[in-house]
Amino acid sequence: MRNKVVMRLIGARIGANVLLLLAISLLVFLGTELLPGNVAEIVLGQGATLEAVAGLSAAMHLNQPAALRYLIWLGGLVSGNLGQSLVNGDSVAALIASRLPNSLLLAGLTALVSVPAALALGITAAIWRGTLYDRVVSVVTIASVSVPEFLVATLAVLIFAVRLHWLPALAYFDGTDSLSGLIRVFALPVATLSFAIVAQMARMTRAALVNTLESSYVEMAVLKGTPPARVVLWHALPNAVGPIANAIALSLSFLLGGIIIVETIFDYPGLARLMVDAVSTRDMPLIQACAMLFCTFYLLLVLFADIAAILSNPRLRLR
Amino acid sequence: MNEAAPATHRRVRLGVHLSLAGLFGTIVVGGWILVALAAPALAQHGEAQIVSGTVFGPMSRRFPLGTDYLGRDVLSLILYGARYTIGLALAATALAALCGITLGTLAAASGGAFDGVLSRSMDTLISLPGLMFALVMVAALGASVPVLVGTAAVIYTPGAFRIARSVAVDINAMEFVLVARARGEKTHTIMIEEILPNMVLPVLTDFGLRFVFIVLLLSSLSFLGLGIQPPAADWGSLVRENIQGLGYGAPAVIMPAVAIATLTIGVNLMIDGFGGRRRRLFADER
Of A13, A69, A97, A239, which is the most exposed, with the fewest CB atoms less than 10 Å away? Predict the structure, then answer.
């Protein structure tokens, strides 16, 4: 009984996200349509014969109406047939497959580092709210959210790689490194990525907790003499789990912006750098596939955030 | 509490209760705007003028922030770069705010299907990761100034729309608007005469935050080499151009990035100083 309402809500969320993804795919496809000139001519270069252009146009379905091409492209996306890169003719699927694990590794390590750090910061700031500690955390987190990632990255490289020689400035790895070597390689990129995300997550965690702390049952606990730490951890935290899970998922979606900068500055062979390179060479099939992949990850994270909010709301869960 | 409830009808009181940090932020931001306006008068050297034989030179009396990868004066480059960084971001923010506020107030004032359709399409737009969308746009249309400003404006219109609409819906339900409606005023009169004047403060706060996001977006694009194109160079491009100097610890790579940080942190302090801290919570969607 009770699960029915929740399942229906979650089902509606998933459905809405699928529709959203479709709308995004349409936008991404229209982006390609804006490109002036015949793609087949661009691929073959200046010296192409008319026959070659006509042949390639037919092979790429360029003679078909745009709506049909969109459907063909969409079908290819779903079935994993992503077409060929315009620059070197490699299969887009193979290019992405070679880079995706690297990006997932970087993102996973960042999540592993930033979630505990952010929770610790946010919860302690909520326990000692109004104190100097809380003020300092608040100012530092606002500052780190409003600073560009490349400033954090360049300062980190300057201090730890150039001045102190502790860590390498580039995140180049060939997979055979030892554990200590791996840590050395990943320390700077992960730290840079975590910087803004931890700040964002800590602020949202604190806000969620403080919101709960203002309710009257918490006031009751305070009045009967419960120590502050116990009030926060025992009374308030369980009721703030939903908003906090929501905050974590939303903050992790900011990874998408950061990873583009971090992979570029540390010369890390990941998916985001593949996409940046593709943009500078206007390699549209590759850009489309990367953009769709990134948007899917993004929507998944937002979906997790929504589901966490639904599951943690007792009014919905226990109806 | 007053800040959390924009529904209260209140007059605009700017400049009252300005904290020390807020004052500091205002001075920093005001200073940068002056710099952007007066760059040619302030800069000692031209934008493209190679003035030193040393590349990636250190800070010195002659070149206060060192020299860049071609031997140009970094301070002068930063002064000129302020025009692009601040100018483009201001233009994009103004465009986003104009579209967002107009559509948001219109949606709130008309309600019904118009409101529904507009809100849903803005929700779609807001769920695109910003930098990703910008990359696709730049790939398709090239990195010209109108494309950059337009893209940034499109990315940040939905956020401005959301804030404007939610504030306007609150005001729309208040008695003086009902009275105006009962008087038989037209929708656009109600929008301009009754609703807009009462949403100035929340909208200004939002304008500041959006400006920060747009500065970060545009400089990130420039840093990737996909933003404003040479010979024009904003602060993000200066970091990119001088990235090789990082190995020598050259101020040429650090200082432009620090300039961005002072601007964005300054705007944030200014907003907090004007009492926008509470409202910031629901504007966090970078």
Answer: A97
